[in-house]
Amino acid sequence: MLVNLWTQDRGISVLDCATQMCFFLILGTTECLLLAVMAYDRYMAVCNPLHYPLVMNQKVCIQLAVGSWISGVPVQIGQTCQIFSLRFCHSNRIDHFFCDIPPVLKLACGDTSAYELSLCVVVLLDAAVPFVLILGSYGKIISTLLRLPTARGRAKAFSTCSSHLLVVLLFFGSATITYFRPKSSHSPGTDKLLSLFYTIVTPMFNPMIYTLRNKDVIAALRKLFLKKF
């Protein structure tokens, strides 16, 4: 992106486009799985605090993190190869700011319904399943919070989940609207705007959302603003 903005060169080769799409899909899958793993971590911390150190030990955390990073790699490489094995006979202009699947499929010749169906299956496996697991975890968490005797205890327990929940809503909300809207309601302008949320806005806000819960960061920010004002 920085190179494109600096040089104003918006051209991209087919190989570069395929590479970009592949990395985008792999990292998107990793994000979905990591968010599901983090939801499970919150569930264990709130619902089973006494078992938490035993269940979520260092070995398990490493296995869950590594599994999240590598499990989407073969599927998304296959998905990318399948898309770029198509014959492209329309305009070579991609009406998007990166090589996403829907705008690339629009350039393909013939019927692409089989590829769109396979895309839906992959999205269901890589995004819908983790989202259902996240919903299940938060269902259990909310049930546990409602049984806590004091409001202070509920607020403290909820504070451990608030940052993660906000990221989940930002990421899955924009991605769901983008990929699960009816085809008739798709427009290039809206697709680009929604894509900005889960490709740029959410990753940009992630560090701020997570670190604002850290007391040291809040204290440092207070000092910074008090010095200026």
TrEMBL record:
Domain of life, source organism: Eukaryota
Give the source species: Camelus dromedarius
Q: Does the keyword Cell cycle apply?
A: no
Q: What is the membrane topology listed in the Swiss-Prot or TrEMBL record?
A: Multi-pass membrane protein
What is this protein's function? Putative odorant or sperm cell receptor.
The name under which this protein is listed is Olfactory receptor
The record lists the membrane-crossing segments as 21-40, 114-136, 157-181, 193-212
The alphabetized UniProt keywords are: Cell membrane, G-protein coupled receptor, Membrane, Olfaction, Receptor, Sensory transduction, Transducer, Transmembrane, Transmembrane helix
PANTHER family found in the cross-reference section: OLFACTORY RECEPTOR
One MF term in the entry's GO annotations = G protein-coupled receptor activity
Q: Report the subcellular localization.
A: Cell membrane
Major localization listed first in the record, in broad terms? membrane
Domain named G-protein coupled receptors family 1 profile: which ranges?
1-210
Q: Does the keyword Transport apply?
A: no
Cite the InterPro entries for this sequence: GPCR_Rhodpsn, GPCR_Rhodpsn_7TM, Olfact_rcpt
GO cellular component annotations of the record: plasma membrane
The family assignment reads: Belongs to the G-protein coupled receptor 1 family.
